[in-house]
Write the structure tokens for this entry.
Amino acid sequence: MNKDSKIYIAGRRGMVGSAIWRALLSKGYTNLIGKTSKELDLRNQIQVKKFFTAEKPYVVIDAAARVGGILANNDFPYQFLMENLQIQNNLIDTALEQGIENFIFLGSSCIYPKFAKQPLREEYLLTDSLESTNEWYAIAKITGVKACQAIRKQYRKNYVSLMPTNLYGTHDNFDLKTSHVLPAMIRKFHEAKKNNVPVKLWGSGKPMREFLFVD
């Protein structure tokens, strides 16, 4: 891939998408494209097809998703399932239809079984039940992984899936109702210090979590 190859980053303004954008710029890639959700609704198949036809990217990086923490997943299971299926299916299928050879699908470590052995291995996928608090999001992401796998098998295209661990960092979501665990904790500690009050956290504190700074 050349430094001027056109790279489309879906979800360019999100925490992960913006980090990818910064990383590619720092490595000298000059032809990056991205759209806001107002400019391009990735849930709309017609809009996605028109965009791909006009832009014809060489590489597509799918960092777009409806994301949230335990509370958001629990309160809006249908939206987390359906909107993520719509977003990723429109991107993957249109990329295939347009003859795009290179596609990176970003998922989540929550696709693995709740009680999978550590460290996680790819072959543990679909061997047991998921964590119930985010299974809707996980099921959508598993579908994306399998779609890319099917394209590699049937069409021999370079469609790959990457499953990062729990990410945090620049452009994170600090809303206490929809955020992930680390930004929620950062906000709670910040507000507790500012207001001189105790910190109240969810859960027992016993589960082990792995975190990665998004850059």
